[in-house]
Amino acid sequence: MASQQVTLSFLLSLIVGFSLIALHSSQGDKDGPFALSVVLNASDIRADFHHFWRSTGFCPPQPHNDASFDLSSDMAQNLAYIGALPFNGITQVRIHWLLDLIKVSRISSAGPVYNFKLLDSLVKLMHQNGLALGFELMGSPSGLFTDFENRTQVFWFRDLVSVLATRYIKKYSLDYVKKWNFETWNEPDCHDFDKIKFSVQGFLNYYDACSEGLEAAHSSLVLGGPGDACWPDPITGKLTKSRVLFDALLNHTIHGTNYFNGKKGIRLDFISLHEKGDAQGLKILEREIDASKYINSKYPELANKPFYNDEADLLVGWSQPKEWRGTSEYAALIMKFTQRTLLARFQMNSTLSEEEHDKRDKVSVDQDTKSKLVKQSYTTFVRKPAYILMGMLPLLGEKQVYLNITKYFTNEVLSNSSDFGVLGTVHLPEETTKSSDSWQVTFLAYGASDPGTNKTKAFLDLKWYLNPPKDVKDLKLMMYTIYMKWGDPYVLWKLHLNSTTFPTLDDFAQLREMENPGGNLIDVPVRQGFAPIPPAFELEDPYIAIMHVCARPPVGPEKVVGVRLLNITAGQVMVVWSDENIRTKCILTYSVEWSPSNPNGPFIRINTYNIIVNVFIYETDSDKKVQGFYRVRAVDYWERKSSASDVVTYTDPA
């Protein structure tokens, strides 16, 4: 029987970036198993809590002006997955070489005439998935721009930026484009300019053209940079290249003269750098500290600017095939970096993160097909633990609460460089109209050591002081976990499926179930003060536990919207939806329902396990089994169902 070849991609290698000024460091905990005492007081609010990790990105391969990667069916799936993270888990995708998607049709007496067809298609895909662009003004349409000391080209580039921004404001609204972070050419001191002459003055002229072009479109559009990486290592002092353009740009924004209007001082809405970790998580933090100290001392006028590390790779060289990238070890490290950043208390007012660029571990998959003559190829994705974590982090609230973590017997405070950590937040419902919103407390604990180091474990004793509001009558606690035994499809594939090159449909069913965190729902007594919740559990390494306490909302969840269907291959459909109308985060599962022949039903639930992200892959062995009508319902912790979404139809894509 002929085989059908598929590229199986373990989705989304993620890494988190930070913004901070100082961090205390001490010896980590490598002395074997030990016990930790944790006290959480939900009524003791200490600070605002910002969900700063909501950006990811990718770089298309050479040639950059070939849109086949950006607009491929693989990328359509990838962006659908990213947009399907619950409750705006990721909101921005930062993309290299976007301007190379624009073509020059002709040069008129008024200047270049552009064809935006390919870029339009990509922006449409982003908008469809509810994602904003991290729009690097990087590339040269049809190779038009060669020298930014050429006055004509500088003015043409300003006009291009203005036309581009105005175009998408008209297509999608100012509110949408205002969410974009426009950014300068990526890592300018690394000199990857694709044959464009970028002298220091040319780079400053280019920056002014970016700024003035955006200003002409609308004054509220955001521009930052330089997204630099090639500057001295803070440990060795080794200079890879130079930071000439980085320093020139920052100095220019303070003291320079605008190329177009001659005014002194040019806007810079955020400062971006790329600090990476050499496979050691705390190295990223140390380098960010050094970078922020350098900026604050040399450019004090910019000390209050938001500071983004928007390519904070744990390991330089995102495409290096490291096995830990696909496992729960990576997810736990992301959580560790996130908690360490928050612990440092030096987030700036719009801090973003950059997950490491999409890395794919490819395997061929064999699937029986009725056609003996046709050999087809397609790609499907299996979600990594890092992606699963990104689906859990939205459960964190908007306020940090008091947490005390010490070692048993000694009462020694856990060091900032420990491989274990905790985080606590509270969500206070909006006091407006009746909705499914309610009071919530979230506790997160992790064990995470750097790749290649010794592992240990901790026994965690947690004492809850919930103190719920007086109107709360019913509480439930959901405990989600990610570790090697659950929420880690790669380990399942390797150890239990023997790294099979050809997964069957049954194998895929096991992998799909493992794409979700292990969940356990229990009732919690409503009382002030100490809450007798099952307090102790073992914290392994790697391990992530998220405990979400939720007050019963006055009503069930709101209606699911935006259901749509993407064909993967014969007999396989991706069902995607939006939770934008849903006010509660106390979602037990979504019920994906299908009717083979009638939009009025009867419908049957086709997901055999609970799912908390806004996507489901329906995999069968024939197109006939997936054709029909689909709808989705949300189900809360009390098993109250929302009304059904609008029904959508799937027919044979051929």
UniProtKB/TrEMBL annotation:
Gene3D superfamilies: Glycosidases, Glycosyl hydrolase domain, family 39, Immunoglobulins. InterPro entries: GH, GH39_as, GH39_C, GH39_cat, Glyco_hydro_39, Glycosyl_Hydrolase_39, Ig-like_fold. Residues 1-28 form the signal peptide. GO terms for biological process: carbohydrate metabolic process. Residues 42-518 form the Glycosyl hydrolases family 39 N-terminal catalytic domain. Keywords: Glycosidase, Hydrolase, Signal. This is Alpha-L-iduronidase. The keyword Signal applies. The active site is at 187 (proton donor). Coiled coil: none annotated. GO terms for molecular function: L-iduronidase activity. The keyword Signal applies. Residues 562-651 form the Alpha-L-iduronidase C-terminal domain.
